[in-house]
Model the fold of this input.
Amino acid sequence: MPKKIRIKEYNSFSRLGEMLNILRQHDIVRGLSPEKLRLLLDALGPTFVKLGQIMSMRSDILPADYCSELRKLRSAAVPMPISDVEKLLEEEFGALWRDCFKELSMEPLGSASIAQVHSAVLSDGTKVAVKVQRPRIHEIMAKDIMIFKRATRIMRIVSKIGEVVDFNMMLDEMWAVAQQEMDFIVEARHLEQFREFNRHIEYITCPKVFTEFSTARVLVMEFIEGIPVDEIPRLTEKSYDMTEIGNKLADNYVKQILEDGFFHADPHPGNIHICDGKIVWIDLGMMGTLSARDREMFKRAALAIAGNDVYELAMAMLTIGDTKGNVSHSDLYEGLNVFLLKYGSANLSELEYSKMMSELLDVATRHRIHMPPGITMLSRGIMTMENVLSVCSPKTNLVEILSSHYSEASMDKRNYAKEIFSALEKLAAAAGKGTEIPGYFSDVLKMALRGQAKLNLEFPGYEEPLRKISALVNRLIRGIISAALIVSASLICLTDMEPQILGIPALGLIGYAVALIIAAWHGVWWIRSSLRYRQSGK
Done:
């Protein structure tokens, strides 16, 4: 059984002081360039390196130059010393590493924000890859995220980022993903599940897991001496056809999404190797999942875009997403109409699917529809995969392969017998419910006669006009009150009412003062509204 990782308390004030010192050293008050942001996150430690890695995949909300610079964080983590590796192995195995391995490389094969990998040899001579977690990483990341959540306002000094990025949402998503990645037992299960889903595909594989040596903080896997998919000169030297690799890679990724509902959420080139004629997927700590319902809704959304059906697209989005507050359906339809004017009539084979998904997610966010983690991970995964294919196999079109899978699943291979049976079932259910309608109608009439009937009507899109009318009425009332105060104060000042200040009745002066405050408040509000109106370009 894996050991449970316990979070121990440590002085968060010292960590906060360290973070503030780093921010000061990087002169954050003068803004952040792409390179400066990368260096800052790297200096802040593994938590922020991970945040930068996730941000690098958010080309839907970050400028391209920021994303490009932050991608360097994927391979720039400082390795931990071998003494820490040996100590952790001893803690997990309850023995010296030499009792488990014949050899262990002193230099890591790779180092990331959460773990690093060393090559080793088992006692029977089998060469393996040993993934070792960084010491206290769970504790440090938990505390860092807690501190960072309190300091997210600092990032708003970068106008291009702070105005469009919900850092709290990004932190929650990052923490959920990081917890998944920090439990290597979960990654071991992912590897076994992925292998099972792809067991019938000869050219797709992933490393085998040695479960007897694996714990929550140590993962021992089959050693893969592969070539990263983006190292094209090395692959062409070995006579690999890059177009064939690209087509097979894209086809398998689409299968992971549409058929398995279990897909690699970080398919960057370092996680895709070519070995002995096979595509080897590695580092399966971060995997996305889609339920059968989400996959069906995803398919319906794609078909709605192809068919220019705004109502079907809105229904799919509302079904998949979680609405926060009231959604103005009229505004949503208007936003989707603009989206479909751009993409609905385009040829699917010419689309940049990642860009289209980004804009669709942006429409959802603007209308308070929050997509589940699986959909946002899918969006990032497709973006990353399109980038990979553009480098290693430019002729491969992910959208064409995706649309081809849709056609096969929805048209060419339809099970008409099953559909007819399903329609008959629905017809029988509808007939059964139809016999109950007279009873329901009778109940409604009885309630109406007793005065208990209530009719609820909802008019989509009414909220914004009502809000504006309410604000207008409030301003009118304040204006009337202000005018009444001035008139009343003027009448009082014509009398000899006591007490007086400088020969003027005090009550009249108070009335003037209150009226002046209300008028000043209205003046400030008017200036701010005018500035916002001009800045909006309306």
Remarks:
- The longest helix spans residues 463-493.
- The two ends are 63 Å apart (CA to CA).
- The chain has four domains: 12-77+147-180, 81-133+183-223, 229-431, 470-535.
- The longest strand covers residues 115-122.
